[in-house]
Specification:
The protein is an alpha+beta fold and 96 residues long. It is 16% helix and 34% strand. The protein contains 2 helices and 5 strands. A hairpin with a 2-residue loop joins β4 and β5. The termini are far apart.
């Protein structure tokens, strides 16, 4: 109970519909393109909202942390279990 109480006290409400431009922040939906031209879409969420089946990853994950503060057109390199991968940010959007 103490752990949950601390989590609630530290929680901040973030409106995903709030305009934040083309930079990646918490709540962003990001479309990435790999070197082969394949696209994938991820939403950066809190640790308690992770749902890989619905493409929702933690902002603290390797991919999420690499994306924070970047903008459309930026390239990112991410160390994955299968090795380093490079992506280009195609689109950043906020909202449902």
């Amino acid at each position: 109970m103490r752990f949950l109480g601390k989590r609630i006290d530290a929680a901040q409400v973030v409106d995903p519909a709030e305009r934040r431009g083309s930079k990646v922040f918490f709540g962003a939906v990001v479309v990435l393109e790999d070197d082969d031209g394949n696209e994938q879409e991820w939403q950066l969420v809190g640790e308690d909202e992770i749902d890989a089946a619905h493409r929702r990853i933690s902002w603290r994950s390797p991919i999420g942390a690499a994306l924070l503060g970047k903008k459309e057109g930026d390239g990112v390199r991410v160390q994955t279990p299968s090795g380093a991968r490079a992506f280009t940010i195609v689109e950043v959007r906020y909202g449902p």
